[in-house]
Design goal:
The protein is an alpha/beta fold. It is built from 3 helices and 32 strands. The protein has 2 domains: about 130 residues, Pantoate--beta-alanine Ligase, Chain: A,domain 2 (2-Layer Sandwich); about 250 residues, no CATH class. The chain is about 20% helix and about 40% strand. Strands 6, 8, 10, 12, 14, 16, 19, 22, 25, 27 and 29 form an 11-stranded parallel β-sheet that branches. The chain has a 9-stranded parallel β-sheet with strand order 11-9-7-28-26-23-20-17-15, with no helix packed on it. A hairpin with a 2-residue loop joins β1 and β2. It is elongated, with a radius of gyration of 34 Å.
């Protein structure tokens, strides 16, 4: 009887021990699971806080890009420091500009977790390649009396092709918008006209100055010499070589030619009204690196012509209305763009090659053309990351 009682007592003790060990194990597993769940939740919260901080960086970069493309200086940029609620949390940014670099601190917060990232970027302006093949393009009509073998001509509505000058015959490429028509007698004179079906649209040009009213101060901030009234010049006034010139009105250039040679390499003129080279006045691009940009809010007339001493010189002609080429344009790289009609009444020996437009307020929308195109508008501003790091929230 005594032995049996001892064995019974041992069994009870063993059962109690097993129960205690099992309970401890269950509690341990439960605690481990709870810790694991807590760790996963904490990790998710941390990741979301980090994503919010990164969103702040990206938002500020886009704001800085828009600021610069609007012609403003980087030193004038600052971001709103108020918290932005987003994705169940919020982010707050701080910016500082120093030595041409933009430093951005961005704090992301999500359900009690805070993370801060810091990025320093250097902002550079990259002139976009004007790389479609449409040498002459308009949203209305083209009426040309001179053709260049291999060139592309695009008119949204009507394209009239004639050839009145003794250039060798060849093939040209043409395109129109839906319902657009091609007319003319060039085909009757031995030219091969290849009409592109569903042609890609030419790269569009946006000239912001014709959409907004800018003060003298705003224009000069963009690097232009400002004239607030109509101008009549006997040639280019001294001191405007290698300048960007803005005329809030009409510009008439009379008597003297504009000659780009020696150290005179570039000239950009924007007039909100008409821009005319009157009489026999012509532009002469003797410098092989010469760039001439003429942009008109009204009509653009080239009456004296454009001469080029080198095929590497380039011109860009743009009009919100009509372009008239009334005298010879020599062989060089160029593009003509208009919203009205382009009238080519004399020789116009332009050819397609990639060219840069580095004009504040003049943007390419990047639709791309037959030359490949691309999102050139967005490529205008290049951000080079100088440094990136995650920092302690206390440093925000």
């Amino acid at each position: 009887m005594e032995v049996w009682q001892r064995e019974k007592g041992s069994t009870v003790l063993l059962a109690i021990l097993i129960l205690a060990v099992g309970s401890a194990l269950v509690l341990s597993l439960a605690q481990t699971k709870q810790n694991s769940v807590s760790a996963v939740v904490a990790q998710e919260r941390s990741a979301k806080a980090f994503d919010l901080a990164e969103s702040g960086l990206e938002t500020v970069c886009q704001q800085a890009r828009a600021h610069i493309l609007n012609g403003k200086k980087l030193e004038e940029f600052s971001a709103d420091e108020e918290p932005v609620v987003f994705g169940g949390g919020d982010y707050t940014v701080k910016t500082e500009v120093s030595s041409g670099k933009l430093r951005i601190k961005s704090r992301g917060r999500y359900e009690g977790v805070t993370r801060v990232v810091q990025e320093e970027v250097e902002v550079k302006i990259a002139p976009p390649d004007f790389d479609d093949n449409w040498v002459i393009a308009t949203k209305d009509t083209i009426d040309t009396k001179y053709l260049v073998p291999g060139n592309y001509y695009y008119a949204e509505k009507k394209l009239t092709l004639n050839h009145n000058y003794g250039n060798p015959k060849g093939e040209i490429f043409v395109g129109t918008g839906p319902g657009g028509k091609v007319h003319g007698n060039a085909g009757n004179h031995g030219w091969t006209i290849t009409e592109l079906k569903n042609p890609p649209k030419p790269q569009e040009i946006t000239v912001e100055y014709f959409k907004k009213s800018y003060s003298k101060t705003e224009i000069e901030k963009r690097g232009f010499k400002y004239y607030g009234t109509d101008q009549n010049w006997d040639g280019l006034p001294k001191g405007l070589e290698n300048k960007m010139i803005f005329i809030n009105g009409n510009l008439m250039i009379n008597k003297k030619d504009i000659i780009l040679e020696g150290n005179f390499k570039s000239l950009t003129i924007i007039a909100t009204g008409n821009l005319h080279l009157n009489g026999d006045v012509k532009a002469v691009l003797n410098n092989p690196d010469a760039t001439l940009n003429l942009i008109a809010g009204g009509n653009l007339h080239i009456n004296g012509g454009i001469e080029a001493g080198s095929e590497t010189a380039q011109i860009f002609l743009y009009s919100e209305k009509d372009i008239h080429i009334n005298s010879s344009v020599g062989r060089l790289v160029g593009r003509l763009r208009a919203k009205g009609t382009v009238h080519v009444n004399n020789k116009c020996d332009l050819y397609a090659a990639p060219m840069n437009l580095n004009i504040p307020g003049v943007l390419i929308d990047g639709q791309g053309g037959s030359g490949g195109g691309g999102d050139n508008g967005s490529a205008q501003t290049v951000f080079t990351v100088v440094s990136w790091q995650e920092i302690d929230p206390g440093q925000f």
